[in-house]
Write a structure and sequence with these properties.
25% helix, 3 domains, Dipeptide-binding Protein, domain 3, 7-stranded mixed beta sheet, globular, 21% strand, 6-stranded mixed beta sheet, Dipeptide-binding Protein, domain 1, D-Maltodextrin-Binding Protein, domain 2
């Protein structure tokens, strides 16, 4: 999906995004809360004794409401608080049952029957029932927000019994089952008491209505979040007693907290600082290949970049090699085409421009463009996006194009996307696919239904041929036919120069050596599997 992260972007981010991308960064350099008994630099942190895992990450969630789970920052919190019918384990490319003990899909792909595990409870002690599943799905449909773009084929559901629920789709959707891994089941009775005028969005933004492995203890927006182990979790109590998050934008501060023992996991250490940890027995540098791709999308509906010739010229003006060598410092590779390379149906034959300023200058001349001034959106808390802007600004200057910065927050960017004429000329966006299916990037990011703030079509791109092929790919169960449709989509998007396909960065996390069980999960990028983590002595 395209999320964006804020990193949250589906950008949704997400990625299926996308994604960012797809969020709230205002005030994200919040205070770090110290617990008494923290040890000094280099020693074993207090977390070993009290079972508390401390995580520092750059971006706070825009909300705790799990309907916004395509945002990776929201998903990071939701994985603690909530659970889902099915889930992807780290390394898996197919979902397995989680809250469901079993499930069955009809031959026509329109009906899904789930049987729930017995004895599951929410954090307030009330039982989890099929009615909670129905309420959650209907709420997503009513809101038409967040995860709705992933499950738009959902028509209705019915509680057959307390533990049996039947879901009906309006059309066959091959990716629907995988998308349920981000539909976090709500305590319906608790949410109904707090619906307000916005279907519970205001209340859920700061409160807990889940049955997940941890319950919410304290949440200070833009600063910190604290979770406590839920001893009655249906898969067994977590190995940790508590998980504490501090939202700190500055990589140098994250580094200092990790070195002092006040943090166990740092998610945004600057590349230049990684050598200080690599090879040090007190730490582990986890560099994982990911399905996440960085794009710089053009506004294809308004302004100078509405002209395809201008977009093509700008595509030749990005220095892809320098980006990988200097910005990523080798932690990643160059992107090729609009679909991330690790994905099924990725096409090597998709056209991809190289860095060629002479060609770029020639194309601008053909377009009749003289001195050109453009504006590029990026999230300043994300080092790669900020440095990508600086690199692009430098190369474009050589061909007479002035690139102005629009350093903003993701919510502000989403507001700009409500109209074509307020959409920036260029926008740096990550895709955050929810699971390994080409639908997660191509449909969510390039279908015309998701323009003008209705989803994560950051380029405001519309092409009937692409829409038709994407719909065919989503509805076709035959893998070969699906791939044929998606390969053609990649070619058309590339030839329309919808954006600059920049990089496939590795996800690099620095973890203290006493943290056991941390593993990157491509289905939940920029999160951590806290339920599986323990702390050794």
């Amino acid at each position: 999906m395209i999320e964006r992260t804020g990193l949250g972007r589906h950008g949704r981010a997400p990625a299926a995004f996308l994604v960012c991308g797809l969020l709230a960064l205002t005030g994200c350099g919040g205070e770090h809360r110290e617990d008494s008994g923290s040890t000094s630099s280099g020693g074993t942190p207090a977390t070993t004794e009290d079972g508390t895992l401390r995580i520092v990450t750059a971006e706070p969630p825009q909300t705790l409401d799990p309907v916004q789970s395509p945002n990776s920052t929201v998903d990071q919190m939701a994985l603690n608080l909530y659970d889902t019918l099915v889930q992807f384990e780290p390394g898996d490319d197919k979902p397995t049952a989680r809250m469901a003990s079993e499930f069955e899909v009809s031959n026509d792909g329109l009906t899904y029957d789930f049987t729930l595990n017995d004895g599951m409870t929410f954090h307030d002690g009330s039982p989890v029932t099929a009615e909670d599943v129905v309420f959650t799905l209907d709420r997503v449909k009513d809101l038409e927000a967040g995860i709705w773009s992933e499950i738009a084929a959902y028509d209705s559901s019915e509680a057959i019994s307390d533990t049996e629920v039947q879901i009906t789709l309006s059309r066959r959707s091959v990716p629907f089952l995988g998308a349920l891994s981000r539909v976090y089941i709500l305590n319906s009775k608790l949410v109904e008491k707090n619906l307000g005028k916005d279907n519970g969005q205001s209340w859920l933004a700061n409160n807990d209505a889940g049955s997940g492995p941890f319950s919410l203890v304290d949440y200070s927006p833009n600063q910190s979040a604290k979770f406590s182990a839920f001893e009655d979790y249906h898969r067994g109590a977590p190995k940790l007693s508590e998980v504490d998050y501090s939202f700190i934008a500055e990589p140098t501060t994250q580094k200092a907290l990790l070195e002092s023992g006040e943090a166990d996991i740092a998610m945004n250490i600057a590349k230049r600082d990684l050598p200080a940890f690599d090879g040090n027995a007190d730490y582990r540098v986890d560099a994982a290949d990911t399905p996440v791709q960085l794009y710089i999308f053009f506004n294809t509906a308004s302004g100078p970049t509405k002209d395809k010739r201008v977009r093509e010229a700008l595509s030749y003006a990005y220095d892809y090699t320098t980006h990988v060598e200097r910005i990523l410092d080798g932690y990643g590779e160059r992107a090729h085409g609009p679909l991330p390379r690790p994905f099924p149906c990725w096409s090597e034959g998709t056209p991809q421009p190289d860095f060629d300023l002479d060609r770029a200058r020639q194309l601008l001349d053909q377009a009749g463009v003289g001195d050109l001034t453009l504006e590029m959106e990026f999230l300043p808390a994300l080092e790669e996006e900020k440095e990508a802007f600086q690199l692009y600004q430098s190369t474009l200057k050589q061909i007479g194009v002035t690139l102005k910065p629009l350093a903003t927050t993701f919510p502000a960017y989403m507001e700009m996307l409500q109209k074509a004429d307020t959409t920036p000329d260029l926008g740096a966006v990550y895709t955050f696919p929810l699971f390994p299916d080409p639908h997660e990037v191509l449909y969510i990011g390039f279908h015309s239904d998701f323009r003008l703030g209705a989803g994560f079509n950051f380029a405001q791109y519309g092409n009937p041929q692409v829409d038709e092929l994407l719909e065919k790919g989503a509805a076709t169960p035959d893998e070969a036919e699906r791939c044929a449709a998606y390969e053609q989509v990649q070619k058309v998007i590339a030839e329309d120069y919808v954006g600059v396909n920049v990089s496939l960065p590795q996800y690099v996390t620095v973890v203290r050596s006493n943290v056991q069980g941390y593993a990157y999960n491509g289905a939940h990028h920029q999160t951590e599997n806290t339920y599986d983590i323990s702390l050794s002595g």
